[in-house]
Amino acid sequence: MFNPSSAQRSVTIDVPEADVDTALTLSVPSNVGPGDSIKFTGKLTRNDTGEGIGGQTLVLELLWVTTSYSFANRSDGTYSITLPAPTVVGTYQYKVSFAGSPSLGLRGSQSKTRSIGISDTNIIALALSLAVLGYIIFR
């Protein structure tokens, strides 16, 4: 007679090792105004073929605070995410990372850190105008 409590079963699951390196790019504007929109763009690719890797979760990290945004990239490996710029003038750093996908045999990667200058161009333009006006008046 079969007794289910005494039956033992073992299951072996083969998980491929992550053996394909990936590359992740990040492009940002060099300078924007406070509170303006910043468009972050880039692509996740396989290092061995250069082919885009789509449908993966990427993370955009704001390096001056402990904030990050997770999002999925497009089927061709590209991505685009738009966020508001900080409202305080300064230089801010960002990077994007990919944790990898063991089920697809992909190693994780991260972009180079990119900096964006936040400057109030109206104040700069006003200061230049006043300097020129002062030069003309006191000349």
Task: Output the keywords.
single chain, 139 residues, mainly beta, Immunoglobulin-like, six-stranded mixed β-sheet, three-stranded antiparallel β-sheet, 9 strands, 12% helix, elongated
Notes on the structure:
With 139 residues, this protein is mainly beta. The protein has a single domain, classed as Sandwich (Immunoglobulin-like), CATH 2.60.40.1930. The chain has one helix at 121-137, and strands at residues 22-24, 31-32, 37-46, 57-62, 67-72, 78-84, 90-98, 109-110, 114-118. Strands 2, 4, 5, 7, 8 and 9 form a six-stranded mixed beta sheet that branches. A three-stranded antiparallel beta sheet has the order 1-3-6, with no helix packed on it. A hairpin with a 4-residue loop joins strand 4 (57-62) and strand 5 (67-72). The longest helix has 17 residues, at 121-137. It is elongated.
What's the layout of helices and strands?
Layout: E1 22-24, E2 31-32, E3 37-46, E4 57-62, E5 67-72, E6 78-84, E7 90-98, E8 109-110, E9 114-118, H1 121-137
Parallel strand pairs: 2-9
Antiparallel strand pairs: 1-3, 3-6, 4-5, 4-7, 7-8, 7-9
